[in-house]
Amino acid sequence: MGRIEKVSPFLVMDILKEAQSLGDVVHMEIGEPDLEPSPKVIEALERAIKDRNFSYTPSLGLWELRERITKHYYDYYGVDVSPSRVIITTGTSSAFLIVYALLLDYGDKIVLSDPSYPCYKNFAYILDIEPLMVNVDHSTNYQITPDHLIDIKGFKAIHISSPSNPTGNLYQEDNLKALCQFCDERGIYLISDEIYHGLVYDKKERTVLEFSQRAIVINGFSKAFCMPGFRLGWLILPDEDLVRKAELISQNLYISAPTISQYAALGAFDYEYLEHVRDTYKKRRDLLIKELDGVGKIDVYPEGAFYLWMDVSKYGMNSYELSIRLLREAKVAVTPGIDFGKNNTDRFIRISFAKDGGTLQEGARRIRDYLTR
User: For residues 300 and 309, is the Cβ–Cβ distance under 8 A?
Assistant: First the structure.
């Protein structure tokens, strides 16, 4: 089987396409924030346009934005990061591709969790890297632990996500420390996708940079900052030698991240507004859990992100069949769990609460009425 043949399609995109053709569908399938970015982002964007900032930036990104991101790490986490270690990327997807190409060669192995965001596995296949899927479940709060890794041989990197898509689970501090120690002692790279930082509802999230000098962080502006269409992310690498090598990849991949998006992002670190965003999604999470009480089993309590990972196996259908029926017969779109792996994922659907309260109530009503009729 060729590399591209191994890349799995996003079934949710098929559902979205059909949903758009049906009309009167409640959309709970896509993980896209419905809130606008901070007004300060819009002001910065307007200034960039007025000032005619339309040229390429350096491939590593605007120095001012790299500095602003490092200030964020000091203000929010108490971590000192040099701006020279930060790369501005075209969304986080390109950051994944850069990191995989940077650290791993043909045939190398990377550990991923199952379930997890499907792009991780697909990028590995595209680059002829072997993904080693580790089955996780509620017994470890859907987290990879060092105990999972003891008997796995020959891998060069681990990629985790906290909070995660699709479950919303948050890696606990003691486990983050243990994973960092495990990787540091063995010369393994720990890659942490922290795109949902800022959308953690009941405690303060921790970055792996607090526990390891070798860890790699990927984050961006699409989720907590409500800027998905700006296509802007960032990557923090351990040292400037890796940064230089990553720069060579980025120059060939996209030259530089979108210029006006970078200028706009200078206004994104509006903590009062970001707190409003977090509080809004917390209320929506609590509302949706209440509205779906008894309909399915919430297998892991979503401490972050904006998803419910709900076990619907009691209805006797696999997740894709159930998702299609909910779409066509109840007019509500959700994501089938099988998009996220093979580890019992046919039992689950992912429901996004990145919608206003009225939409969530109506979507929950349609799901409940259809499944409990």
Answer: yes
Q: Provide the CATH number for the domain around residue 239.
A: 3.40.640.10
pTM of the predicted structure, to 2 decimals: 0.96
| Single-letter code of the amino acid located at 15 | I
Dihedral, CA of residue 193, residue 108, residue 83 and residue 247, to nearest 10? -120
Of the listed ranges 14-23, 221-230, 246-255, 364-373, the one predicted with least confidence = 14-23
Length in residues, the chain: 373
CA distance 178 to 149: 12
Written as six digits, the tokens of 37 are 């970015």
117 alpha carbon, distance to own chain's centre: 7
Joined tokens for residue 213: 């000098």
Q: Which pairs from 239-244 meet CB under 8 Å and 24+ separation? A: 239/85, 240/84, 240/85, 242/102, 243/60, 243/84, 243/85, 243/87
239-263 as b/e, with b when 16 or more CB fall inside 10 Å?
eeebbeebbebbeeebebbbbbbbb
| Residues 111, 227 share a domain | yes
- 212 vs 71, 191, 309, CA distance in Å? 19, 11, 30
CATH (domain of 282): 3.90.1150.10
How many CB atoms within 10 Å of residue 373?
6
Using DSSP bridges, classify how beta strands 155-161 and 348-352 pair: parallel, antiparallel or unpaired. unpaired
**Strand pairing class (86-89; 189-193):** unpaired
- Average pLDDT of the segment spanning 239-263: 97
Q: Dump pLDDT digits (tens) for 168-177.
A: 999 999 999 9
